[in-house]
Design brief:
Elements: E1 3-7, H1 15-26, E2 31-34, E3 51-52, H2 73-78, E4 87-92, E5 106-111, H3 122-125, H4 131-151, E6 156-159, H5 162-172, E7 177-178, E8 200-203, H6 212-222, E9 226-229, H7 235-241, E10 246-250, H8 254-263, E11 266-269, H9 277-284, E12 289-292, H10 297-300, E13 307-310, H11 315-326, H12 332-339, H13 344-355
Parallel strand pairs: 1-2, 1-4, 2-3, 4-5, 5-6, 6-7, 8-9, 8-11, 9-10, 11-12, 12-13
Length: 356
């Protein structure tokens, strides 16, 4: 079956890109289609036999400054000619689901989330009363109308988590099957020779929605050791906020990160994620998770068995959760077994069954 994978833009590396590579293992001869492609920033895409782009590729800054082309992106995907393919699989958190297919073609959309800045994340991107919100209002209205139409185009919608399936139902009025994204859990597997040490861990890009500020505030009060892994735009601000019990180690190799997972007392996960791969990676290493009770954590963490939840994103609730965590005993094997539900092999098996 001639197959093409369609992705919003190929110019970075992250969780969605891991999904594309897992799909490439299922469909090794599939082409890749996208709005813009940056070969230097997306070397992982070289495994695809052919990368097809839209007219946006010819705009000089489009590969790096795509946020200025929001109104053109729907047109770009509608202009893609995919007529020669029998199976079209879009992987998207934005416009790739809006491709136009013909009778006889099957379009499966693996939805990372309905377009965040238009729906669930609108208040975060456009704060109430801001000038940006006023200026962007006509564009947002147009894009919302188009996005609803685009959400009707796939023959089958698949969500990465229960939370994303609920958003699809809310914003697009459709039901979606849930297939969890692939996590290469074997890379973070527990090591009996490694002993737990006296620190908590937080991992991710240092950006506002990840709520590093909340974790730092809570651990400033608790006085407990916290190690922060990652880089990002809020690094300077967060370092100024942190006291001496909080250590920033920057970006790490995968092997070094796995070592931190194995040694930490637990992972702090105070943000709401669509899925949240780091929570699974930590559990694969046998580390329990203290998580905000929302988003993908509701699928990946089992309360009282593989972690502890807190209900509100505030300092008091997080501190209470840490104190409950310290009074709770966890079975390491239960934690590891839970992580196995999210393996790459499980993803590949379920997606193969879906498309067959």
């Amino acid at each position: 079956m001639k197959t093409v994978l369609v992705y919003d833009r190929v110019n970075k590396w992250g969780g969605a890109e891991r999904v594309l590579l897992a799909l490439h293992e299922i469909f090794p001869d599939a082409d890749l289609a996208t709005a813009v492609y940056s070969p230097d920033k997306a070397k992982w895409a070289r495994v695809f036999p052919n990368v097809k782009t839209t007219f946006l590729q010819r705009i000089p800054f489009a590969k790096d400054k795509h946020e200025f082309l929001g109104l053109l992106t729907p047109i770009a995907f509608e202009s893609l000619d995919l007529a020669k393919y029998e199976l079209v699989i879009s992987v998207t958190s934005e416009a790739a689901k809006g491709i136009i297919t013909r009778p006889g073609q099957t379009h499966v959309c693996y939805c990372l989330t309905p377009t965040r800045y238009l729906w669930s994340g609108y208040e975060h991107y456009f704060s109430k009363g801001s000038l940006l919100r006023s200026v962007a209002s006509p564009a947002v209205s147009y894009l919302r109308r188009w996005d609803r139409i685009a959400g009707e185009r796939p023959d089958t919608l698949v969500a990465i988590s229960t939370a994303v399936a609920a958003r699809i139902r809310k914003y697009y009025g459709r039901d979606a099957e849930v297939i969890f994204p692939p996590v290469e859990i074997e890379r973070f597997s527990a090591d009996a020779k490694v002993k737990r040490e006296n620190f908590f861990l937080m991992v991710g890009r240092l950006v506002s929605y990840k709520r590093f500020d909340l974790a730092i505030s809570a651990f400033n009060r608790l006085g407990l050791p916290l190690v922060i892994v990652g880089k990002g735009s809020e690094e300077g601000k967060l370092k100024r906020l942190a006291r001496n019990n909080i250590k920033f180690v920057g970006e790490l190799t995968e092997a070094s990160l796995a070592d931190y997972y194995r040694k930490c007392l637990g992972l702090i996960f105070p943000q709401e994620e669509d899925f949240g791969i780091v929570a699974v990676e930590a559990q694969a290493a046998g580390a329990p998770v203290i998580a905000f009770k929302a988003g993908g954590a509701l699928d990946t963490v089992i309360a009282g068995k593989t972690g502890i939840f807190f209900d509100r994103q505030n300092e008091k609730d997080l501190i209470d959760a840490v104190e409950r965590f310290r009074r709770t005993s966890f079975n390491k094997q239960d934690i590891i077994k839970n992580a196995e539900r999210f393996s790459k092999e499980s993803f590949k098996r379920k997606f193969r069954e879906l498309t067959e």
